[in-house]
Amino acid sequence: MSGNSYGKLFTVTTFGESHGKALGCIVDGCPPGIELSEADLQLDLDRRKPGTSRHTTQRREADEVEILSGVFEGKTTGTPIGLLIKNTDQRSKDYSNIEETFRPAHADYVYTHKYGFRDYRGGGRSSARETAMRVAAGAIAKKFLATKGIGVKGYLSQLGPVKIDPAKFDWNEVHNNPFFSPDADIVNTMEQYMDDLRKEGNSVGAKISVVATGTPVGLGEPIFDRLDADLAHALMSINAVKGVEIGDGFECVAQKGTEHRDEMTPDGFLSNHAGGVLGGISTGQDIIAHIALKPTSSLRLPGRSINSRGEAIEVITTGRHDPCVGIRATPIAEAMMAIVLMDHLLRHRGQNADVSCDVPIIT
Amino acid sequence: MSGNSYGKLFTVTTFGESHGKALGCIVDGCPPGIELSEADLQLDLDRRKPGTSRHTTQRREADEVEILSGVFEGKTTGTPIGLLIKNTDQRSKDYSNIEETFRPAHADYVYTHKYGFRDYRGGGRSSARETAMRVAAGAIAKKFLATKGIGVKGYLSQLGPVKIDPAKFDWNEVHNNPFFSPDADIVNTMEQYMDDLRKEGNSVGAKISVVATGTPVGLGEPIFDRLDADLAHALMSINAVKGVEIGDGFECVAQKGTEHRDEMTPDGFLSNHAGGVLGGISTGQDIIAHIALKPTSSLRLPGRSINSRGEAIEVITTGRHDPCVGIRATPIAEAMMAIVLMDHLLRHRGQNADVSCDVPIIT
Amino acid sequence: MSGNSYGKLFTVTTFGESHGKALGCIVDGCPPGIELSEADLQLDLDRRKPGTSRHTTQRREADEVEILSGVFEGKTTGTPIGLLIKNTDQRSKDYSNIEETFRPAHADYVYTHKYGFRDYRGGGRSSARETAMRVAAGAIAKKFLATKGIGVKGYLSQLGPVKIDPAKFDWNEVHNNPFFSPDADIVNTMEQYMDDLRKEGNSVGAKISVVATGTPVGLGEPIFDRLDADLAHALMSINAVKGVEIGDGFECVAQKGTEHRDEMTPDGFLSNHAGGVLGGISTGQDIIAHIALKPTSSLRLPGRSINSRGEAIEVITTGRHDPCVGIRATPIAEAMMAIVLMDHLLRHRGQNADVSCDVPIIT
Amino acid sequence: MSGNSYGKLFTVTTFGESHGKALGCIVDGCPPGIELSEADLQLDLDRRKPGTSRHTTQRREADEVEILSGVFEGKTTGTPIGLLIKNTDQRSKDYSNIEETFRPAHADYVYTHKYGFRDYRGGGRSSARETAMRVAAGAIAKKFLATKGIGVKGYLSQLGPVKIDPAKFDWNEVHNNPFFSPDADIVNTMEQYMDDLRKEGNSVGAKISVVATGTPVGLGEPIFDRLDADLAHALMSINAVKGVEIGDGFECVAQKGTEHRDEMTPDGFLSNHAGGVLGGISTGQDIIAHIALKPTSSLRLPGRSINSRGEAIEVITTGRHDPCVGIRATPIAEAMMAIVLMDHLLRHRGQNADVSCDVPIIT
């Protein structure tokens, strides 16, 4: 179960570098009988694909996924599902000058020390490219969760300093702009900000939010595999993520107990500061998580670094890059949340299928 | 490896409820030959113990840990280490009225739905009491890490709205006050704030920071077992934690790429916005994490809730409780970081012991 | 999940050396609501206990197990169950001369090289004593399986050269003699053989069989966690086991396909050469496994060995020892089979709870 | 880590059905810097390939493996290695009549009940075809083990009733005949026996032995991940295996202690009844395991069975089949032993890299 595998019952194992022959993934533990086709996966992959707008990387990839096993006559068989995406557009020559240089804030330096050398083309295994596979696996999880009435949706909360206005929140807007912004009115401001950034040659971070609706009460395996702990793990494993919050997150620090607690009535909870998780177990309310993404490390603006001989150098990155990886993280965050929820759903029913309880469910 | 076990090579498995007979823990995978005694563990346990100051719970527990196996003639044998702490002071009668009530913002409601019923005395398994075992296990990890020149220390960054002043930061102060504050001057303000809170009958959250020094470059197993992902998992698994940051965390959202990136020179990194982790692997710089703890859920101030028949009730919690769990989380956060680092150290040398590399290490 | 933990959903983690303070165990993932008390566990522990007859070790141990957590008002809570057995009768002085000697066919030599040193009292962690904890954990699994109509029973097939007569097989006899023999008539022969062995100062091996009845079809997770693979793992992990068979085992080598295959009719299978497992999945027939136990390594008859300086020495073992560990392995084999079946039952329903199938079940 | 993943540090995860698009595998945790190419893997795959002799299945498959990731400039990078084999020769029409029938002694019946339906073409996931992937993964393990001076070799001990003569044992003969027999003189007898079997339309079982040489002392993680327990698990997971032995295996049952124990002298062990494993840890001697394979279940001779409506039917299997799967299991058994040894080698050095010991190693 080394580092490239996630999950206990529903497991995702991936392989592939940004400039290798292909990316792949094995999804194990998907229950049988779920309708599944390449089209189901392609939908989410296309949302992640670079080249969708002028604000994302101009790298054109087909990102066409193939299902190689685990599906028969249109339904999952319960056996492992092999997925494959061939890398078609890598432009190796863009990276030939970096074999001996370490780009600041990239994983070049650490990969070299950990493994003795590294595949220097693109980001190799550390590139965001590998997340394509997670999105495909997450699409399978979403398909299953949908059969249980559970949905997972994400959106952009903040692009650099530009925050969405909660009063203008509309889920239908999220897919109408290239930012996944649920606030239609702020899109122009975001586009302007991004164009300025592009001209400046700089980058900025982002904050993404993910919400799961229709979740049952009871998911999560205290104490170490609490639902929120597993969500934190899965979300923090996404490239460029530097922070994870559940519910009110860091706002809890200055909150008083009377403000924070979500009181209960026979008709439901009166608030959701907890973000749908208490004591590491889902309450049945919407599960809400936020992630902070750092600004992209590949810049045209020169940065000081060292080369493989330890000499001081200056690094400039040209070629095709994302000025804001945050824009693309939304489908990835959805995928990770879906994978975690699915794993927990199977675990919970595995252990507690015989449990019955008279207490009313108020969500 | 169900939900109460953490780690791949260095594993911690715990059991015990707040009002059961005892708490226990099995620590597996500790290398042999490490000097270990009860005294080593007791040191950290005492830091966590309630009753240390008037600001924490007035529940008096001996919290005396016994080593039952895995140590021979003062050294670890490499076989599993069994630890035991007997519960001595539970005051069951304080909880007899809550068998049928669900306290708001506690895990009562979710545990009942997940398992069909619950041990209603105290918080049962969801109580903070079980963290005593993690602190003991973490002390073992700290002992081993120390032999490798790695240290793990935590402190309070913020108590409710009261922030420490970075200019006054002094590690030596952390153990001189009951808040784990590294800023000696702010302690009076914190004490005053806490007394007001106590009179009001309310509670507040806190922000704790943990720092690991002397870490080697190369720890972390991308992509799912990235060091930061495992840290997020371990820290989020602590009761009351609602957010985790690595390095600059959520400040990254508004940072530009030129501000965020830690440039490198032959003499070292020029900054540490990354918090010591890049691409999921340690850089050799200090590893910095922050956690947000929600305000305590047990209040004297009445809160609306329901009972097990779904009827509306009002809940008041009397007895002994923590007005701010944040004060006690510092040793627990240290313990979790130590456990994660130790697991990763063993995993890294397991896979990469033969790796050699000419590139200079600049940290 | 280091080496002292077994299971995916239903997990058993143990600690303890033969001459340490105590043996312990954490059983995690037991569904809630199962009635459980110390008496349930004590029953199986007593079957394993030395001193039961003159043919087993004369070491008197109370082997009284305590339940420290995970049970409330007589039922499992779904939280981890901590078990403890204090070591009361170790007679350390019997072992003081072996600190520097390696007993042939014991684990002394390998433990010293693996860990650098060893707890030389008794067998330390390698002693059969630690199996007491597995029997206790297995009793919990048996309790749960019984609620599903599944039973697990073992018996002695062969003691050294003395085989039971299948024509005389009677389950009721198994508990009427100290050998777990289902053949009442052969007991005298076995007793005579054992007395001769004792006088000679030698030991002999044994073959134990375990049968699970009432199992459903569908348990097992191909390809690596096949039911038979997990059974082989669990049974081979018992001290002194050198071989495992499922169904006809090594008799299959010379069988023809027409002889081996278990044909099916609407009224059931016509035979059970497969031992209840096909393609790694249970068929619904009785699950049958056999294990081979090597003769005890502690003998009064001198054996050649070396000491810790590598010098040739002669080793004689005095004190209290088992002339045939096989006699005691029956409850341990039952326990391991029960643990494996329980883990698989939870895993199977976790993944496949929604599966329905019109095909009749013929078992 | 669901059922299709094996290993803790060195992990193998596979996917693929016999008649799906492709078979694949992800090998994770291979240390970096090991030379690896498709040719290394192809060598072992060709040994396993059907069509090699008239005694094995006449199904012609290219079985050409592709390395899709994890290797850069001819060396492993330490990142996961993706392998792919496209299925080219399935002859689907041979299986069209079995959609509704359950072949006796195949996994058809159990797969249908476990998953609700099954991919009825060939054996689907239960087919021996998936072992091709394990052989490829095992070849990677063998490459690494070779750098440590460890070799893994297998041979046929017994084909049906025909046993090899230990006095004629010659490792060089193993690759000179299609049976992997180390006894050149018995090959004619085996060929004759096989031809008679083929004419009869029947099948027979086999016994394969695997030996690891040059292994260090100290591999194995008691108590549950003992080296022999993991070997038993890995070997029993191979299709058609019904029994596993370590060392003398079931011969131990009738052995006396004085016969069985491997005495030690300063110049080495005097025997190897233990098969290289004591107390679950390798002794440094050759590690010896044997497996029993049942006769092939696909026969031209009619067998009684039921169809999916539970009606009595007769089943005849035509097409291309193995009359003795045992002949092909040798490379698979080698592969599994190599995978287990590699995983344990990484785990052992992960935990015990700092151990030193003055005691001489006598192997």
From TrEMBL, chains A, B, C, D:
Annotated cofactor note: Reduced FMN (FMNH(2)).
EC numbers for this chain: 4.2.3.5
GO molecular function annotations of the record: chorismate synthase activity
UniProt xrefs under CDD domains: Chorismate_synthase (cd07304)
Keywords: Amino-acid biosynthesis, Aromatic amino acid biosynthesis, FAD, Flavoprotein, FMN, Lyase, NADP
InterPro entries for this protein: Chorismate_synth, Chorismate_synth_AroC_sf, Chorismate_synthase_CS
Binding site for FMN: 125-127, 239-240, 279, 294-298, 320
Cofactor requirements of the protein: FMNH2
Residues where NADP(+) binds: 48, 54
Pathway: Metabolic intermediate biosynthesis; chorismate biosynthesis; chorismate from D-erythrose 4-phosphate and phosphoenolpyruvate: step 7/7
Catalysed reaction, written as an equation: 5-O-(1-carboxyvinyl)-3-phosphoshikimate = chorismate + phosphate
Superkingdom of source: Bacteria
Subunit description: Homotetramer.
Similarity comment: family membership: Belongs to the chorismate synthase family.
Task performed by this protein: This reaction introduces a second double bond into the aromatic ring system.
UniProt protein name: Chorismate synthase
Native organism: Neptuniibacter pectenicola
Gene name tied to this protein: aroC
